[in-house]
Amino acid sequence: VMQQLEFSGAPAALCAALAEAVGLDGSLQTSSLGPGASQVFSIVRILLADPDVICSHRPLALVPLDSRPALAQLLRFWQGGGGLPAIAELLGQPLPAVTPPVWRSPSRTLVVGNSVEDFGEPSVSDVHVDLDSLLWKN
């Protein structure tokens, strides 16, 4: 798991801190992960890639119940706090400065379908769309 996370180019210490924060055992092989741990691993890899937009349908549906709150908080923090640099600061693993500096908006966009059950009560800036009702209308 750690080798695959470090493949993202993020510092090893940040990969380890992020894996620990969501309860992911870094000593395991990715091929040995169950469905829930695989989902956690996938979300951590997405966060390490730090895209401007994450579009997902029920990202926490397979995530083990004990990992959901931490992962939901990290996704919300990624969205509203400034992406991976903000998560790195939160975990005490600040990222090195990029040279030359590259401007990126501090806000990120998280598009999630059917998230109310997974994320709890939406915040003011959240927009929730029930994709199942849109896709499977009678």
Outline the structure in words:
A two-stranded parallel ribbon has the order 1-2. It has 138 residues and is mainly alpha-helical.
Task: Please render the helix and strand layout as text.
Elements: H1 2-6, H2 12-21, H3 35-49, E1 53-57, H4 68-81, H5 84-90, E2 109-113, H6 116-119, H7 131-135
Parallel strand pairs: 1-2
Q: Could you tell me how far the N terminus lies from the C terminus, measured between alpha carbons in angstroms?
A: 43 Å
Structural class: mainly alpha
Main sheet summary: 2 strands, parallel
Mean pLDDT: 81
Radius of gyration using CA atoms only:
15 Å
Q: Outline of this structure?
A:
By secondary structure, the protein is mainly alpha-helical. Helix content is 43%, strand content 7%. The mean pLDDT is 81.
Core attributes:
mainly alpha, single chain, 138 residues
